[in-house]
Amino acid sequence: MNLYLGLDFGTSGARAVVIDSNFQVKAQTQYVWENTQQNKLPHVWQTALFNLISHIPQEMRGEIRAIAIDGTSATVLLCNSYGEPVTEALLYNDSRGVAMMDKLKSIAPSNHPVISATSSFAKLLWLIENISLSNQTYYFLHQADWLGFLLHRKLGVSDYNNVLKLGYDVGDLSYPDWLTDFVNSEVGGNILLPEVVTPGAIVGNVTPEVVNSLGLSPECVVCGGTTDSIAAFIASGANTPGEAVTSLGSTLVLKLLSRTRVDDAKYGIYSHRLGDLWLVGGASNTGGAVLRHFFTDAELSSLSSQIDPNTESGLDYYPLLQKGDRFPINDPELLPRLAPRPENSVKFIHGLLEGIAKIELRGYELLQALSAATLTNVYTAGGGAKNPIFTAIRGRYLQVPITKAVYTDAAYGSAVLASRQFIAQ
Ligand code: ADP
């Protein structure tokens, strides 16, 4: 039997999911981050990687045909030519690159997705400016690239999802001149940018050492990885233009599959490549964090069950915790609209859920207008997905079928990615 292993290195921990050729889950393991000291991080990830795999039942480990790994987007590190980290890892939300913004804007084209204090490119600039480099060769890697290296030992390989925020041109499938010229002139080519493969493409077999230590088959291959949010999208099963995934976590994140690439920095919209299609996404500051500010999860669930989702609340909210939103309204001064607040909590929640649903509708209207894709159905992930009244309210606005994604786990999405070269999908 062929099995496929997906490994997800997320914000709170790491998870492994093993699936069979019918995409059924056969085993799962997880590892919660305990030691979050930044200078120890790559080694914590390494421990987690080997721990996760070694806890998969032995009889399954020998059947694993392919492995794919996802990591948090724009979590990066610099390694020497042995693949040893020479710097601490700079995490996805590490904003020390804010000091590099002027330089960044002078190098990258305007409105490019790398123009953000937390982009991989901002972190590369920060490293170049702040780390004393010797004459040796260094490899700039993402978290998923480095973890893959530990299994196949091919140093300097990434995938076109992870390198998007480094500046890689996912349309042309090449590094643009502005990026390569900069690296060559600034560090004389001493820092190598990763070679880029398609997510899910075979990179190489696991090494004999890994076979011995983890009981994997020598036939087992490691594939190009992806980022955690793309892996979660893949997990949902959405694969046709017009299908979308709404993530109702602390914030509201929309992703719509389209034939057209859309990048619009004004709204913080950018597109990830997914084979021949584009995953067009935008994120609003509204979402569950506003709900949680007023109510516990238990209150949300019991009070919302008293709402009639087919009626209007009569309230016109734009739920935010503080001023400013980027998508679907780009206005850093946009004020939260949460008044008037009715005394009845059920009515208040009704207004809040409607407010979020209206922002979701407006978001999809904008994504459809820019991408020319027509929304056909929406899968939902995140804490808000478990509220059927919320789903019914959203359905009233969106007017398309809304289903709770059966699988939302990024590790499951990575396992599906690992199976791509072996199963027709
Ligand atoms: P994140 O990973 O972004 O922290 P989760 O996917 O864990 O978010 O979802 C947590 C959010 O879900 C919270 O902000 C909470 O307000 C929201 N939530 C939890 N239960 C409900 C519910 N019954 N109805 C609507 N939202 C809910």
From TrEMBL:
Coiled coil: none annotated. It is an enzyme of class 2 (transferase). One of its GO terms (biological process) is xylulose metabolic process. Pfam families: FGGY_C (PF02782), FGGY_N (PF00370). Its EC number is 2.7.1.47. Belongs to the FGGY kinase family. It comes from the Bacteria. Keywords: ATP-binding, Kinase, Nucleotide-binding, Transferase. Residues 246-420 form the Carbohydrate kinase FGGY C-terminal domain. GO terms for molecular function: ATP binding; D-ribulokinase activity; D-xylulokinase activity. This is D-ribulose kinase. It catalyses: D-ribulose + ATP = D-ribulose 5-phosphate + ADP + H(+). Gene3D superfamilies: 3.30.420.40. Its cofactor is a divalent metal cation. Residues 3-234 form the Carbohydrate kinase FGGY N-terminal domain. PANTHER family: D-RIBULOSE KINASE (PTHR10196:SF80), SUGAR KINASE (PTHR10196). One of its GO terms (cellular component) is cytosol. The keyword Nucleotide-binding applies. It comes from Okeania hirsuta. The lineage of its organism: Bacteria, Bacillati, Cyanobacteriota, Cyanophyceae, Oscillatoriophycideae.
